[in-house]
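If you are new to this repository, start here. Below is one unmodified record pulled from the training split, so you can see the exact layout before writing a loader.
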Amino acid sequence: MPVVQVGVKRIGEKYRCKICGNEVEVIKVGGGTLVCCGQPMELFE
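And here is the target side for that same chain:
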C-alpha cells in the first residue's frame, strides 16, 4: 500500500524529523510536504 503524504494545512502545525530531530512550526501555509534528511517530516502535537 503506498504512503500518502499530506501537505501543510494550518498555521501552528509542528513537524519533526524522524532522523535528526529537527523541529519546525508553520507560520505561513503554502502547501507541499516538509522534508528533512531526505524524508517527509512527521506532524506532532
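Two things worth knowing about this chain: The chain has no helices and five strands. Residues 1-45 form a domain with the Rubrerythrin, domain 2 fold (CATH 2.20.28.100).
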